[in-house]
Amino acid sequence: MKKVTLVGSLIFVITFIIGVVVALQQGDKEEIYVNTKLTLSEDLTRRASSHRVLYLVIYDESSKMPMPYGAARFVLPSSPSGNFINLTLNHENLKVMGGPNKPKPKTMRIKARLDVDGQAGKDQPGDIIGEATKVTYGSTGVAIELNKIF
């Protein structure tokens, strides 16, 4: 009887260890909304030297509502220039309007804004913006050039 209990315990421990190893190999397969590569137009580098707050705003392209689907705010460590940052939007950093259980958009418009005063809200004079359209949920390497002054 002791052999049966020992064999059963051994099988349980081996199964448990295999489960832990498989889980660790899987890693965190976190869903992303989008991964972006942001570039500042060369002729706006001097103008953007004091801009340290970046907003990424997602719009659901299939929605008839003008309101954003969600937004994220990032504080830049230095003045933006050239290819200044790559960012991934996910459930941790994107604030979804209407809560985290809102259905994910299939196609999105993504607006990037270097904000002159750092405050959320509508674009204001002096903000530097750029957009990407028809972006599929989960896309990576989406290039957005900030090339317009509002």
Q: Any overview of this molecule?
A:
17% of the residues lie in helices and 41% in strands. The protein is an alpha+beta fold. The chain has a 6-stranded antiparallel β-sheet, with no helix packed on it. Strands 4-1-8 form a 3-stranded mixed β-sheet, with no helix packed on it. The longest helix has 25 residues, at 2-26.
What coarse outline follows from CA principal-axis ratios?
A: globular
Low-confidence stretches: 20-28
Strand percent estimate: 35-45%
**Helix fraction bin:** 10-25%
- Strands ordered across the widest β-sheet: 5-3-2-6-7-9
Number of E-type strands: 9
Q: How would you characterize the largest beta sheet?
A: 6 strands, antiparallel
Number of helices: 1
Salient structural properties:
alpha+beta, Immunoglobulin-like, 17% helix, 9 strands, three-stranded mixed β-sheet, 41% strand, 1 helix, 2 domains, six-stranded antiparallel β-sheet, 150 residues, globular
